[in-house]
What does this fold into?
Amino acid sequence: MQRLSSAAFSHPQGGMLIYDDPLTITRRGVEIKIRMDTRKKVLVIDDDVDFGLALTYFFDDKPYRLFLAHTLSAGMFILENERPEFVFLDNGLPDGFGWEKAEYIMMKYPKVQLNLISALQAPVPLVKVNRVFQKPVSLEDMFSCLV
It folds into this structure.
């Protein structure tokens, strides 16, 4: 049986229904069982496309589900909808300074392990975060944060 993280089904009145819980559907006498993806989620919000590609290859055989966002707004959308356990947040993004969202993230999602990244010497964050990385960041260092 193929594992799916979520399944989308057309709603008869339009739109989509998204099911994120284990689900059994019976349709025309055929029973379909869908199991939830239990891998921990990692969100990386960084505008460096090459870094994102390297992360994709690195995480391919790891027991984590990787989400990439190249803008702050896209990252916040993924954070709200996917609720990852781990977040790596770059400071300099095309639509804002990521670190300015650190306090909001920690207040709204207190269980998330927030890690901050910056290419420049950045100020010490005012909230408690897991780690602060100065670019370049090694993939092994990032992976060591996933506990």
